[in-house]
Design brief:
about 100 residues
Length: about 100
């Protein structure tokens, strides 16, 4: 007897968004991956452009990585690294601003 991918009981009610869309067909899975890749790459590229033009690149690039992390393991690793650097920068920023008396 094959097990269903959608859990029964309390997990389905607590985490409804997790199990809302699980394509069984390989073509649907590939289509979802392509859409995520296109949207995530577009957001990251817009963030890279914002580095040289006015805009919140520091917010947009991690948002694009978060979109890509839905489907790709390499994006999850990069997103963890970006979060670690953000924590370090935040700690250093608070220490230097406290020394300056700001």
């Amino acid at each position: 007897m094959a097990r269903s991918k959608i859990p029964s009981g309390w997990r389905r009610w607590i985490y409804p968004a997790t199990y809302a869309y699980q394509p069984e067909n390989g073509a649907l899975r590939l289509a979802k991956k392509m859409v995520v890749a296109t949207v995530g790459t577009s957001v990251v590229l817009v963030g890279v452009v914002m580095i040289v033009t006015p805009g919140p690149a520091i917010v947009v690039i991690p948002a694009g990585l978060a979109i890509l992390a839905v489907e790709f393991a390499w994006a999850r690793r990069w997103l963890r690294r970006v979060k670690a650097y953000a924590r370090i920068a935040r700690r250093r920023g608070w220490k230097t601003s406290a020394k300056r008396g700001v």
